[in-house]
């Protein structure tokens, strides 16, 4: 009798384990982009559709940035367009230059748009697309392939040079002085650095390094160029999955980092220490839609976050509530 009881318990345990494994496998196989095991227990925020910019799957949205009038500017890389989206959701093409490949956008406090382009160009334009000006994007003969940029409080701007790979890490971060007379390297020997944002204190940068699938925190001294002797460069987090990886990012007033994950249809939120605390998921990602989650922008003075997505399902802007108000950028100082 005792032996039968033991055998029954063993059989029940085996069946329970098999059921659990089968159920878990079923859950995983139902998603094209399952969350990495270490991130499945995080807070989940579901993004909501806000505006479809284009119905095509080949349009690649990037560079969201708000001006003082509440207009949202976004770029469309491969068809070389820049859109202005008015507060009442009217979409206006303000620039379309074949081969320009506009990517990241940052707005100066005088209202001009600074745009880095994958065609090795940096341009400035007025909000209506007029007064196009080119900025020299070379340092000591080396071409800078700008992917993203951010202003500091003095009007200098920092650009990620999106080039290089694991075997040839020749990318970096460069600072352009506010008068555009000086370009200085901040960090070199990176593998395709991508997103870039300041910490709330302005003493550090969050840089996503796509080629190494990781997020870096770069500590700066007061001159804005020299690295902190102890906290100069730290690998804050390593991501899972390929192709794709970490794209652009933004920071809120609490120091949380909103890191977009390309080809995964989500944004990973990390705290000021680089520890993951939440996932923002785009509906349809499990079926392979809207996977090109590229960049985010906070509506100034709020915790409302606008997310650019593209891919199967069209080019959309999604919206969600962040964990705190967004940082006040140079455009609104």
SSE blueprint and pairings:
Elements lengths: L1 H28 L13 E4 L1 E7 L6 E6 L5 E5 L4 E5 L5 E6 L5 E6 L5 E5 L3 E5 L7 E3 L2 E2 L2 E2 L2 E6 L5 E5 L9 E6 L6 E8 L2 E6 L5 E6 L4 E6 L13 E6 L6 E7 L5 E6 L3 E5 L5 E6 L13 E4 L5 E6 L5 E7 L12
Parallel strand pairs: 1-24
Antiparallel strand pairs: 2-27, 3-4, 4-5, 5-6, 7-8, 8-9, 9-10, 11-12, 13-14, 14-15, 15-16, 17-18, 18-19, 19-20, 21-22, 22-23, 23-24, 25-26, 26-27
Mind explaining what this structure looks like?
- It is a single chain.
- By secondary structure, this protein is mainly β.
- It has a single domain (42-332), classed as Neuraminidase, CATH 2.120.10.30.
- It is 8% helix and 44% strand.
- The chain contains 1 helix and 27 strands.
- The chain has one helix spanning 2-29, and strands at residues 43-46, 48-54, 61-66, 72-76, 81-85, 91-96, 102-107, 113-117, 121-125, 133-135, 138-139, 142-143, 146-151, 157-161, 171-176, 183-190, 193-198, 204-209, 214-219, 233-238, 245-251, 257-262, 266-270, 276-281, 295-298, 304-309, 315-321.
- It has a 5-stranded mixed beta sheet, with no helix packed on it.
- The longest helix has 28 residues, at 2-29.
- The termini are far apart.
- 43% of the residues are buried.
């Amino acid at each position: 009798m005792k032996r039968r009881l033991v055998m029954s318990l063993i059989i029940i345990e085996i069946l329970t384990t098999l059921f659990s494994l089968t159920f878990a496998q079923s859950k995983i196989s139902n998603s094209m982009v399952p969350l990495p095991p270490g991130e499945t227990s995080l807070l989940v925020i579901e993004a909501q559709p806000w505006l479809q910019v284009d119905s095509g799957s080949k349009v690649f949205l990037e560079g969201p940035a708000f001006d003082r009038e509440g207009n949202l500017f976004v770029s469309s890389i491969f068809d070389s367009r820049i859109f202005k989206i008015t507060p009442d959701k009217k979409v206006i093409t303000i620039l379309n230059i074949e081969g320009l490949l506009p990517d990241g956008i940052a707005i100066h406090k005088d209202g001009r748009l600074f745009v880095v382009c994958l065609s090795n160009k940096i341009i400035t334009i007025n909000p209506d697309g007029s007064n196009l000006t080119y900025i020299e994007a070379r340092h000591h003969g080396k071409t800078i392939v700008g992917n993203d940029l951010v202003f500091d409080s003095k009007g200098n701007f920092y650009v990620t040079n999106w080039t290089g790979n694991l075997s040839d890490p020749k990318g970096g971060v460069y600072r352009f002085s506010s008068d555009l007379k000086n370009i200085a390297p901040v960090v070199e020997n990176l593998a395709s650095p991508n997103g870039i944002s300041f910490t709330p204190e302005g003493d550090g940068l969050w840089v996503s390094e796509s080629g190494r699938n990781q997020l870096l925190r770069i500590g700066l001294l007061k001159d804005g160029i020299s690295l902190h002797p102890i906290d100069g460069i730290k690998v804050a987090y390593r991501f899972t999955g390929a192709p794709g990886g970490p794209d652009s990012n933004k920071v809120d007033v609490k120091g949380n980092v909103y890191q977009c994950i390309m080809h995964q249809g989500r944004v990973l939120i990390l705290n000021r220490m680089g520890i993951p605390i939440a996932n923002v998921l785009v509906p349809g990602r499990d079926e392979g839609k809207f996977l090109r989650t590229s960049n985010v922008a906070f509506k100034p003075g709020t915790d409302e976050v606008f997310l650019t997505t593209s891919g199967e399902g069209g080019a959309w802007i999604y919206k969600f509530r962040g964990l705190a108000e967004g940082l006040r950028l140079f455009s609104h100082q």
